[in-house]
Amino acid sequence: xxxxxxxxxxxxAGTGTGPGGAPARRLPERAVAPLRGLAGIAGLVAVLEVxxxxxxxxxxxxxxxxxxxxxxxxxxxxxxxxTALGDTLTGWGLGLAISVVAxxxxxxxxxxxxxxxxxxxxxxxxxxxxPSVALIPIAVxxxxxxxxxxxxLVVYASFWQVLVQVLAGIQDVDxxxxxxxxxxxxxxxxRLRHVMWPTALPYVMTGIRLAAxxxxxxxxxxxxxxxxxxxxxxxAVAQTSGAVPQVYALVLVTGLxxxxxxxxxxxxxxxxxxxHQSVRTxxxx
Length: 285
Description:
The protein is mainly alpha-helical. It is built from 10 helices and 4 strands, in the order E-E-E-H-H-H-H-H-H-H-H-H-H-E. The chain has helices at 29-54, 65-76, 79-112, 114-127, 136-143, 147-171, 175-183, 188-225, 231-241, 244-272; strands at 2-4, 6-8, 26-28, 282-284. The strands form 2 sheets. It has a two-stranded antiparallel sheet. Helix 9 (231-241) runs antiparallel to helix 10. The N and C termini lie close together (7 Å). 27% of the residues are buried.
């Protein structure tokens, strides 16, 4: 027998009673958790609003939250802001798509051929730790302050997130299941489709979720350092011109983008893995 885990309105998991001895009204834990998160954000905003007025931090370097919100409101009315946002999302989306396709394809091929995996293991472990920002001079030399420079950094950083997860998923395949598939004379494609892919899919979705966040970080970094068009470039211009509230407003936008990317990635993951135990919402009593 199963039921959805619940908690009462006050956030307690206890039973409790309401007026007249009636059971206290309860809210699902999934509904309470976002409310707690919003409370934390509200507290942070309050601190950022009050702190500059206390004199502990100069308002020239940390403006009140209200000024940041006003600057953000003005940005929303400017076409340049939306153009920069589109440039950032374009670099992020293209880089992520290339990384996912290349990472999944390479992972399935390398992981399904033991000899190939053994040969490439040292190369992967050598290339993977290289920071993408170390490639910035190469990207500038090859493509300048262009979309291709941004894509080079985004793809390099995100590709490894997907590849490593796919390889881990292939390695986690049950040998008994693989041998059973072979005994039923399933070919390479059949074993890949019916045995390897279902086992590797949770790993693949984890890699995609990690790659989505990394891709956004590198897209903004490339714009900030190289000067490629996008929100990062707008942050650099605002910082140079001394528009401090606008700098914080743009940083806030990038943070909101990161939250949105993570939420969308998790929603896609839950959708794709609705059958998997890790995303089931019911718990045994």
